[in-house]
UniProtKB/TrEMBL annotation:
Name by which UniProt lists this protein: 3-oxoacyl-ACP synthase
Domain of life assignment: Bacteria
InterPro entries given in the database record: ACP_syn_III_C, ACP_syn_III_N, Thiolase-like
PANTHER family per record: 3-OXOACYL-[ACYL-CARRIER-PROTEIN] SYNTHASE 3 (PTHR34069), BETA-KETOACYL-[ACYL-CARRIER-PROTEIN] SYNTHASE III (PTHR34069:SF2)
Keyword Acyltransferase appears in the UniProt entry: yes
Domain (Beta-ketoacyl-[acyl-carrier-protein] synthase III N-terminal): residue spans on this chain: 115-188
Residue stretches making up the Beta-ketoacyl-[acyl-carrier-protein] synthase III C-terminal domain: 248-335
A Pfam family this chain is assigned to: ACP_syn_III
Keyword Transferase among record annotations: yes
Amino acid sequence: MSTDTVSLLDVSGYLPENIVSADYFAQYADPDEVTSNLMFKAPKFRRHVAPGETPADMAERAVAPILARHGRDVLRDIDILIVHTQLPDIGIVGSGGDVAKRLGIAPEWLIDLHNGGCASFVYGMKLARQILLSSDARSALIVTIQNVAGQVFTQEQVRGKAQAAIPGDGAGAGLLVKSGDSPILDIETRHLPEFAGQMTVIADPPRRYWEAGSGEMHVGFTESKIAKVLQRGNRLVPEVANTVCGRIGVPAQDLDLLVTNQPNRAFLRNWRDALQLPPERHPDTFDDCGNLFGAGIPVTFDRAVDEGRVPAGSLVMFAGFAHAGDFAGAAAVRWGGR
């Protein structure tokens, strides 16, 4: 076993059974909320969590294909568990402990990664890789869970807003080990604190998210804020991807696959154009799954692998940005095959 190289050995995804078409939201559309803005061009379909489905349920289902391929004994070596949950169902703490209990593991490193947002899978890769290289830890499991679509955006006061039709629910998982089988070549992450807190959650009448009140919470968008997010997102993802390409000595246009978060069609088109890649090298799950937030990267990559689009030896770039642009990350992997 290589002790100086970390591999992304496998990735898997989970999508809830409940498929919801754009018609569901169209019937509730508020005329005052209808917009032609590129941020809110609705996907054809998305998945919604089932009533009572918990983050631990979703995590277990996302990890199941990895266990089926590698055996449940792989859990014995998990010393690092990193979990990102968009909507933790446990007050104050995240869902990491509950996920560990469900999987029957007690890792030395258990991290609830709240601030990685749509790029949390890349952020988790960087943290896990650093811990693996600097400790006796044997392997890491990263789980990203997106569960707000069917719980927040279907609420009576929210479902008529243009933003409600964009998200979908799902979860992804990645297994990292010390080996050279599917090596992580380089990772770039950037925090931009000047934009922190700009993706706000509001209600009408106004209140803080933890205060009691009659208004249901939703993301606070304004035309000015949308324009700024579009500008930052268009810039940040190509920047971090190109930075990684520069360090590994490969032009962006020579990447075999670009796997990004899936916020909307405009970002997807602009990112691949900026990196000079054709659509067939940039998998797109937006119309089938909606914006899966932090689960978008692993779910999209898992689907591409299942479809035979990622042969062994492929150079894969994972990239994304979070929230209003306060975080971005990219990671290059020489995929070893499944």
